[in-house]
Amino acid sequence: MFQAHSPASLFLFPISHSYASIPVRNLPFFCDRNAQFFKTLAHSVMRINVISIRKQIIPKHFLQIRYFSVISPTKAPQNDPEQSIGPPIHHDIFKSGQKFGSFRVGDSTFYTLIENFAKAGDLSSLENVFIQMKHERRVFIEGNFILAFKAYNKANQAEKALDLFHKMWVEYRCTPTVRSFNSVINVVIQQGLYDKALDFYSCVIVQEKRVSPNVLTYNLIIKLLCKLGWVDRAIETFREMPFKKCIPDVFTYCTLMDGLCKEDRLDEAVCLLDEMHVEGCVPTAATFNVLINGLCKKGDLARAAKVVENMFLKGCVPNEVTYNTLIHGLCLKGKLDKAVSLLNRMVSNKCIPNDVTYSTLVNGLVKQGRAVDGASLLISMEKRGHKTNEYVYSTLINGFFKERKPELALKIWKDMINKGLKPNIVLYGTLVDGLCREKKPDKAKDIITEMEKMGCKPNAFVYSSLMKGYFSTGNTDKALDIWKEVERNDYVRNEVCYSVVIDGLCSNRRLKEAIAVWENMLSKGYKPDVIAYSSMTHGLCNNGFVEEGLKLFNQMLCEGSGSKPDVVTYNIILNSLCNNGSVSRAIDILNRMLDHGCDPDLVTCNVFLKTLKEQGQDGSEFLEELVIRLHKQKRVVGACNIIEVMLQRYLVPKESTWEIVVQQVCKPKKIRVAIDRCWNNLYVQ
Predict the structure, then answer these.
(1) Which PANTHER family match (predicted)?
(2) How many domains does the chain have?
(3) CA distance 485 to 4
(4) In a domain? residue 126
């Protein structure tokens, strides 16, 4: 009989399994003799092999008795044959009345069960414990609910967390504090239910005033408001804090400053830093980094440098995030030499550069056409003990291909393989795309074969690049063979693949096949993108179907922002109309183009200048009018592009036109420098 064994003897059984099971029939004796042991059992500290107990201490006539089990939150091995035995807790444990002794009397056992089920994510058993405690009129503590809220958060069930919070008062007779409120609103925010989070805050805190908020409450709400772009409401909430006897902390200021910077309200963010000093809240490196990041993104490096000086004055040492932000800002402004010197200063200040630092610099160098310098930086990076990631190699390979240096790109690839770095889909895609741009699609296909052997499946980008390569070399049939392979694999087919095929067929004068692919794309439920629309329109217009091209263009306009025509699309229509002598209709399309916020480019101007030249006009008045119209709409870049076209065509703008553009583009002290640079660029071209 089980009674013959003392509680201490149970420790002699194996403990490798996740279950502890005892016949219900023997629970009264066991629990009365050792209540503390039962609580420990409920806490799942003990792990007793249920099979061992059955074989060693349970007679055969007890085999039909029901068992209950308390499962440990620790995950059992997947190959454990006992893993499937019994539920985590049997419901019969709650039906045995007073005979359960200490289990009936001790609330702490219930609390332990709640903790275990919450950690294990067993919501059904957790809710059963709450129901039983309510039925027995147990005393609930707030910690029980906070554990449940966390479990609901892991299970993505914010609605249940809200429902449980509202039941705390009436059903469970437990008054929630701000701890419970913060736990619930954090769950709702993390699940992306922003409107419900704000409604919950407004109901509990503002209207009913059932809970007094603390600084964490305000931090959560301010962060949410800033995330939604409602910075003014965030400021109002921030100003309410002193009236609620809540002192903003460094996180409050940091969150609000970040929101202001993202809304391009940098002056207010800087003023908030000054206010922070006055209120006695000591800023951290993260606080300064928020401001530095905002100023660098705006391109105001001078003010960013002043913030760094202020940082030193306040006794706050710049960290790697500070340096990375400054280096990124310098790269965005094209000041690569200063960025490299800042890297050296970073090292001298005993601040260790990380992968982000080097990746930012390499990317900046590549964008300026200095992939060779980027490769040198890569070597320096590896000498300092940094392992280069796939992003850096991908950036360098792409840079060398763009600079028409495929041999260096392949050398980087081989060096990477020799160093034992396993290529991923991004690296393979970069190499395939580069080889196809170099008119070597067959070599690119060999790379894809190697890629598949390595267990890396090509994606839509890889197949699209290969098809582009074959189309560009005139191998339309090979490109269509690849397309058939793509069609067999639905997981890689998307709008981009369709656009590439349509563009390739239209460019190679195979309009009927392009129309067939277009119709197939629509029948499959794919929405054409701007490239597909432009390619199809171009194919129709080139084959003399201008009216059909216009219908497709108008359909594109009706589709909405997802397929909004760009300057290439407009140029296709404008060129077709002007070639057919429909200049007035072309002017209407140009007006529509300007109204939709699309700026004309060099191709647009050349289309109209060619037509006007055939009519005996030089086109200067037409371009002047374009400049004035763009100026009225405050589209400075577009106006400057038109001026540049006029200078290239030796069409001298009027003094009033010069004045319009120069005043908007240049600062008074830099007008001459800007004009000289403009003429210098024209001379070099």
Answers:
(1) PENTACOTRIPEPTIDE-REPEAT REGION OF PRORP DOMAIN-CONTAINING PROTEIN, PENTATRICOPEPTIDE REPEAT-CONTAINING PROTEIN
(2) 1
(3) 73
(4) yes
